[in-house]
Amino acid sequence: AQSVTQLGSHVSVSEGALVLLRCNYSSSVPPYLFWYVQYPNQGLQLLLKYTTGATLVKGINGFEAEFKKSETSFHLTKPSAHMSDAAEYFCAVSLPYTGFQKLVFGTGTRLLVSP
Amino acid sequence: NAGVTQTPKFQVLKTGQSMTLQCAQDMNHNSMYWYRQDPGMGLRLIYYSASEGTTDKGEVPNGYNVSRLNKREFSLRLESAAPSQTSVYFCASSETQLSRDSDTQYFGPGTRLTVL
After folding, report:
1. Smallest CA–CA separation between B104 and chain A, in Å?
2. 3-class DSSP assignment, residue B50
3. Which residue of A has its CA nearest to B6?
């Protein structure tokens, strides 16, 4: 069975500081990997995803993530935090070649950005 | 394009009451999903529909039923609500029908349900 672990339910940074949100997965085969963001009182929207090819993936709003197979990780980073980045972030995985996408989500990390 | 819409936005039920959550998408997507979101547990899949006319159970289907009314609409029904079903419910859709595990899912704004 596949699973996703997000370390830290809350992460606090100052505006302009590096953002690092951690995600590790457990899967019998390399999965597809996703980061979704949820702003207050809204649904989730895709930040970025890794399927195949280049392991460094760039997403919207200056975020990027690197797939590291040896570490079973897909950490999300942004060089300089902005107040508008305050939101909850979810890492998710799906197994390839199963015939249908079933996303398994992590428990989420709330990013707090202070001035 | 409105994307994925959900009604109602908020609902309070008493134990034992029934209700239907409505979801519609205008992106001509084949696949639709219902999730519930609980604090500290992320999102969990309740039911999904790979295409019009088909539905399948997800991780937490007990206490729920679904109907894929047509390609646009996918409803979730609680026949006899219980306090354990207090949650935020999200509907989502994605484009393709089969073997596209990498597809992006598009989410609605959610329905916040409280069962007393």
Report:
1. 7
2. coil
3. A43
From chain B, pick out residues whose CB is under 8 angstroms from the CB of A57: none
At A66, list the tokens.
């690197």
Q: What sign does the dihedral B92-B95-B99-B103 (CA atoms) show?
A: negative
**B60, B87, B102, B103, best to mutate vs chain A, most A CBs in 10 Å:** B102
Cβ atoms within 10 Å, residue B89 = 23
Among candidates A100, A102, A106 on the partner chain, residue whose Cβ is nearest the Cβ of B98: A100
Q: Could you tell me how far CA A78 lies from the centroid of its own chain?
A: 11
Per-residue tens of pLDDT for chain A, all 115 residues: 678 999 999 999 999 999 999 999 987 777 889 999 999 888 899 999 998 888 899 999 999 999 998 999 999 999 999 999 999 999 999 876 666 677 889 999 999 999 9
**Which amino acid, residue B87?**
S
